[in-house]
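Ticket #4471: structure export looks truncated?
Reporter: QA, pipeline team
Priority: medium

Steps to reproduce: submit the single chain below to the structure queue and open the exported record.
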Amino acid sequence: MVFEKFKVVLPNHSPYVNYLYSGNTKCTHMEKDWMMCAERVGMSNTPTVCKEFLDDYRECVYGIRHYERSLALKKAKAEKNIEPPGIPPQYQ
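Actual output as written to the record:
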């Protein structure tokens, strides 16, 4: 038959899952949670209902809160005049 080499592959998952797959392997579970929530409530209600999932996903990808915490710690150390530890002496 002529069409034997063409296979029809039907998706075995929801059409919204993996819609915005970023390729970031450490955050795929958070992205999937967000997309499952978005599919459940609809894309128009996603910004309000699934905000927690989206915030967690963005934090995982961009690390904004982590960066802000590190800046706050550096600022607190600068206010207390705490110097970073020096290089330890080499063993002979």
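Status: closed, not a bug. The export was complete when the record was re-opened. Leaving a note from the reviewer for reference: DSSP finds four helices and no strands in the chain.
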